[in-house]
Amino acid sequence: MKIHFVASSTDSAQAALVRLSQKYGNVRLYEADVVVCLGGDGFMLEALHKVLDKSIAIYGMNYGTVGFLMNAVDEGDLFQRLENAQPSVLHPLHMTATTVGGKVKSALAFNDVFLFRQTRQTSRIQIEIDGRLRLEELICDGIIVSTPAGSTAYNLSAHGPIVPLSANILPLTPISAFRPRRWRGALLPSSAVVKLTLLDTEKRATAAVADFTEIRDVAEVVVREDRSRKATILFDPDHGLSERIIAEQFVA
């Protein structure tokens, strides 16, 4: 098995890169059977974008902090771990953002797409789902459209629901909603097209973020799941992403 190692810039990840490359070899990406990512969840998201649409899976070892998308650190018998690893297929969200100035920009997200106010003033957002107006005005700090894989990240911190990987559901979660104050969000089918229109943009500037891509001063954002594109992530047996999502719901 030919491995391509990638590592974050932390000292621990870089030291592991040297050790593992010497022990198992480190081929170029286009020659590899699998990519092994050394770092945390943020670095894994970057690596997932790099292997997107390539017929190559990615396996992470946690040299970061939370490591929800990663496996435990164990540098022994890596070939056997990779042989036994179980795949999870992730489809990204596709974001199309139109700025106040009329520029149209696109980005992909494996975790979430979220809007967030740029100033001290709240954002005012109109919500359409599949062409139907669902909420005339949401006054809030922002709003999140999450994938199931990302439902335990920012979405969970904003009190959104955790969603099983196989549920084909996208959580839509407000961030500090002021009006309507009791609106807690919605669960949407993965086929839904979410259109978020920003109101009063001259006074209430808002940014849109897709994973690590930020677009400022947006006027309209359209989000949908792109089933035509995918990346495969590998997990040790009994520690797969679906199991982690379920287990996270029973954490005190």
From TrEMBL:
SUPFAM superfamilies attached to this UniProt entry: NAD kinase/diacylglycerol kinase-like
Compartments in which it is found: Cytoplasm
Cofactor(s) listed: a divalent metal cation
GO MF terms held by the record: ATP binding; metal ion binding; NAD binding; NAD+ kinase activity
UniProt xrefs under InterPro entries: ATP-NAD_kinase_N, ATP-NAD_kinase_PpnK-typ_C, NAD/diacylglycerol_kinase_sf, NADK
Keywords assigned by UniProt, alphabetized: ATP-binding, Cytoplasm, Kinase, NAD, NADP, Nucleotide-binding, Transferase
Pfam family, one: NAD_kinase_C
Family of the protein in this entry: Belongs to the NAD kinase family.
Protein's name according to its UniProt entry: NAD kinase
Originating species: Gluconobacter sphaericus NBRC 12467
Gene: nadK
